[in-house]
Amino acid sequence: MCSSDLDRCRLPDFAYTYDVMPIPSRRGGLESINHPRGSLGRTQACGYARFAAGRDVPEAERRAGVDRFFAEHKFLDCALKKPIPHESWHANAAYFYLFGHYYASRMIGTLPAPEQAAYYAKLVPEIAKTQEPDGGMWDFYISNHTKPYGTAFGILSLLPVTRVKP
């Protein structure tokens, strides 16, 4: 997918559709995966990809996406570790969890430095809740790769925290 496809997937409320369609839609009603609550993790990934590609992603849009991520976070929590993809509210899937947090951390890093510490403070406990007694992290069981990928996403999500100057 190239950045022009991402531009096309971007909806007026800054959510992103789950797939590339000639005309983006909210098909599926209010519980649609294409509504902001179903796009929480995707919004972070797509917004960051557009930003990294040099597209115009205004600071206000980046902040609004991160604010919504935390305000509506309960919908990611509801999907966490559920065995069937998209069975949760707003068609969220468990595998959106750590993926979305990783990209949320990247979006936080694009905001002004004085704001970052407060956002990272909200992010850390959300990542920590995925940690198992053995130290590994996971969000969705896929295979024997579940803990390695989950732990990698979790640790990478926390890396910017160590770089923040309070």
Structure description:
The chain has 166 residues and is mostly helical. The chain has helices at residues 3-9, 40-52, 59-71, 74-79, 96-108, 113-128, 146-158. The model is unreliable at 162-166 (pLDDT under 50). It is 49% helix and 0% strand. Helix 2 crosses helix 5 (96-108).
What's the gist of this structure?
The protein has 166 residues and is mainly alpha-helical. It has seven helices and no strands. The longest helix is centred in the C-terminal third of the chain and has 16 residues, at 113-128.
Name some characteristics of this structure.
mainly alpha; 7 helices; disordered C terminus
List the helices and strands and how they pair.
Elements: H1 3-9, H2 40-52, H3 59-71, H4 74-79, H5 96-108, H6 113-128, H7 146-158
Helix pairs in contact: 2-3, 2-5, 5-6, 5-7
The count of helical stretches stands at 7
For the largest beta-sheet, the strand count, sense and barrel status come to:
none
Specify the structural class: mainly alpha
Multimeric state of these chains?
Answer: single chain
**What does the radius of gyration come to?**
15 Å
Q: Which residues form runs of ≥5 with pLDDT under 50?
A: 162-166
Number of strands: 0
Separation of termini? 37 Å
H-E order = HHHHHHH
Q: Helix content range of the residues, please?
A: 40-55%
- Overall, the morphology is globular
Q: What is the residue-mean pLDDT, rounded to a whole number?
A: 86
What fraction of the residues are assigned to beta strands by DSSP? under 5%
